[in-house]
Amino acid sequence: MLAINGADLAVRGTAWLAMASYFVGALLLLKTPGSTPRFRGLRWVWAAGCEFYLWHMLAAFHFVHDWSHAEAMQHINERAIAMTGQSAPLGIWLNYAFLAVWAFDAGWLFFSPNDYLQRAKWISRAIHGFLLFMVINGAIIFAPPAVRWPSVVALSVLAWAWFTNPARERR
Fold it and tell me: Mind giving me the DSSP string for the chain?
């Protein structure tokens, strides 16, 4: 049986909850045609995912990096080199940007859902393109196999929902 301590659970558990909320929220967004939110819980799921990601970052800084930005930057760079053979000195900054962009997007959806669903197509594509890029890196490329394969399945469901969405061209 896998032994897991409280610190590991805080770091990994919040990441899993953030990614599960991302996948569910993105699927609900894809299934929300027009300018009126179709699912009442959509904005709560999207905001909760963002909040879980914030808690993940706080847990990682507390339990893993001893509140050191330099340590976090080095850790992410070492992971990038180990996984891809390429250095990623800006990796931590991309994680900060991911949180900021998701918080901005979740706030927009939460406080002005009709405006959110009516915004320009290029804004949605830019925001969700960046979020998806980061999710693919965090939940698939840099994830352990136990997380990678469920994430691949969830991403496949999202791709199917996007390609079969009749409202895709209208947004």
Answer: -----HHHHHHHHHHHHHHHHHHHHHHHHHT--TTS-SSTTHHHHHHHHHHHHHHHHHHIIIIISTT-HHHHHHHHHHHHHHHHSS--TTHHHHHHHHHHHHHHHHHHHHH-HHHHHHS-HHHHHHHHHHHHHHHHIIIIISS-HHHHHHHHHHHHHHHHHHHT-TTGGG-
